[in-house]
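Posting here for the record, re: adenosine-5'-diphosphate.
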Amino acid sequence: MSGSSGWIGTRRVTGRVRAWTEEHAPGLRNWRRWASSAVLALIATLLICRISATLSPVEFGLLNRWFAVRPARQPSPEIVLVGIERGDTEAHEASRLDDCTCSAIPRRRLGAVIAAIKRAGASVIVLDLVLRHPCPVGVNEDDHREAHDAGLVEALETPGEVILAAGVNPNPDSTYFDRPAQAFVGELATQRIVASPLLHNPSGVIRGVGLIQTGAPSEMARALAAPLRLVGVTLAPLSMAAYAAHLGHACEIPEVVDRNHVSCAGARIPVWASSSIYLLEPFMPPPRDRKYTMFINWVGPPGTFPTYPISAILANDELAPDVLNTWLRNRIVIIGAVGERLNTPYLGTSRHKPDQVDQRGSVTMSGLEVHANAIDTVISRRFLEPLPPQAMWAIIFLCSLVTALAVRALNTWQAIVAMAATIGLVAFVAMHLVWLNIWLYSATPAASVVLCGLMTGLYSYARSREQTTALERQAVEREAATATIVHDLKQPLAAIGGLTSVMQMAQTHKELEHEEPELLERISRQVERALSDIDELLVANPDRELNLNVTRFDLLTLTRDLAVAQGAGSTIHEIEVHGPDEGVLIDGDFAYLARAISNLMDNAMKYWPDGGTVLVEAGALGDTALLRVLDQGMGISADNQPSIFDRYHRAVPEDSSIPGTGIGLYSVKRIVEAHGGDIEVDSELGRGSTFAIRLPLRQPLPQASTSEGLLP
Ligand code: ADP
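Prediction output follows.
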C-alpha cells in the first residue's frame, strides 16, 4: 500500500519536474546541449585538476574551520599528559645560567617526575622534550653532570617495564648523541628506547604530524642515531613510536603500502605527501620528497586530555601514591610543555608563512596536545581518509556539468541560484563527511562550478552572437530575394496587362482577326512564366513536401530538349549534350527533374557573362544515373561553396548586376534529394564550375505509368 503510494508520489514529482523543465528550461531536452555542456565540464575538470594544488590553502583553511566547529569527542582514556607549565620554566629560567642551560626544567626535577611516573605503573612514557645538550655545557662538565644529569639517568635506570619514547633532534649542531646520550640511554639495557628525528612537519601543514621517512635514514641521521639502541634501520616519529610501544612493539617502523597509505603496528594509516599536499595527485607532478603526513583527527579543544602539572605528580608521589596510580597506571604518559602554545614547531612555521594556517587562536594546542591527538587518532583508528581521486573527478565533473546546463538552459538568475546551490551542497556534504572521517575537498568542486559557469557563459555569448549575425544575414538575403521575386512576377503580369489592352483596343476597332491567335499565344507564354516562378517558390518552401509523380522516361532526351530550349534564350552561349546512344532510362518526377536540370543550365549561362559552350553529360553507372553540367564561367570561391545550396544564399560579388534570388540551387538540391540522390559542386573562382547530380535509376513506380522514352 505504502509502496504504491510512494510510487505514485515519485511519478507525480517526476511529472512536475518534466512540466517545469518544459516550461522554463526547454533547452534541457536538447541532446546537443547536453553533449556540448559535457565537453565544457570536462575541460573545466581538467583545468581545475591542473590547478588544484594552488587551492590547497583554501582546502586546509576549510578543514581547519570544520575541525574547530566540531564538538569534542571522548579522547582515548589511555592517554594522559604531564605538563611542564609556564611557572616551571620561569622558575628555572631565573637560575638557569648557574644551574643548567639546556632544559626547560632542571633535569633533577625531570628525573624525579619520570621516576614517580614509573612507580605509578605507566605503560609508556613519551618524552616530548629535546634533550639536546649535556648539562651543563662548558668546563667542568663531569662535575656538573653529576649534579644535574645524575637524577635523570637514575630515574631512567629505575627498574620497571616502561617504554620510553623520547624526542631527539636531527639538527647538525645537536650534541645530543654525544657522550651525554650514552649516559642517558647507553646503559638502559632493560628498556626499549624509541626516538624520533621527525617530530615536526617540515611543510607546516596544519595539524599534521610527520609520520614516516621512507627508505634508509640519511648518513647524518644514521651517524647521529648510532649511539642509541634502536630496533630497525630508520627512525620512527614520536607519535608512531609511542603507539607501537603501547602495543608492545619496540620501535615499529611504518612501511609504505602505497602512495597514500603506510602500515605501522598493524594499523593501515592514510598519509598525505607532506612537503606539499597535492589534492589530486594523478594530475599533479609527484611529490618532491618522500615524506608523508598523517592528518590528525582532532579530539577537541585544548584541555581535552587529562593533564597533570609536574608539581601535582611530585606532590602526590610523596603524599598520595594511590591517587597517582589511578591517574597513570597502564597509561601512555606524555611529558612536555603545555604553556608553550606559540612555540611549537607547527606554530613556528605557520607564523612565518602567511599562506599557511595560523593556529594562534583559542583552538591552538601545544606540541604535547598535538602528539596526544596523533596517538589518539592511531589508537582509535579514526583516520581522516581523503576521497579517492577518481571519486573527486566524478564530483568535479558532475558539478561542472550541472553548472554548464544551468547556465545554458536557465535564465541568468536561475543559473546563479543553481550555481550557488551546487557550491553550498558540496560544502554542506563535505562538512558532514568530516564527521565520518572522510575528507571531501570542497574548494575544488566549488572552483570548478565557478570556472565552468564562466566558460559556459562566454560560450553561450559567442554562440548567440554567431546566431544573431547569421539571422541578420538571412534577413538581408531574404529581403533581396523578395524584391527580385516581386520584380520577376510583375514582368509577365505587366506583359499580360499590355497584351490584354491591345486586344481590347483592337476589338473596339474590330481590327484583330489576323493577330488574335498570336496575341493569345504570347499571353499564354507569360502566364506560363509567372506560374513557373510561383512553382519555383513552392519547391523552395521547406515546409511543403515534394510529392513526386514518378514515371519512367529517358533522362538524356529530356536533357537534350531542355538544352535546345535554354540555348535558344542566349546568343552568346551554346549547350552541348553528350550521352550514351541507348539513352538513360530513369524513374522520377519528370517535371521536377526538368526544373532542376534547367536551373543548372540557366546558372551555367548566367554566371558565364563572356559566353561559351556549356557541356552537359548524362550517363548511367550501375544503378545510378549521373548528370554533370560544366561551364568555364565565373566559378565559386572555396569559402562560398558550402553555402550555395542554402536557401536565399547568393555568392555573387556585392556590386554584381546578375539577377537572382538564391533559391535555385536550394530547389535543385531538394528535388534531387527527394529522389534519393545527391548533388556536388566542384568549382574554382574565375575558371568555371561543374555541378554533378547522382540519381537512383529505379524508384517504386505507381501502376501503369511507364511512358518509356516519351516526353509527356
Ligand atoms: P541565384 O538566383 O542567385 O542564381 P542559385 O541558388 O541558383 O541562386 O545559386 C546560388 C549562388 O550560387 C548564385 O548566387 C551564384 O553565386 C552561385 N552559382 C550558382 N551556379 C553557379 C555557376 N554555374 N557558376 C558560378 N556561380 C554559380
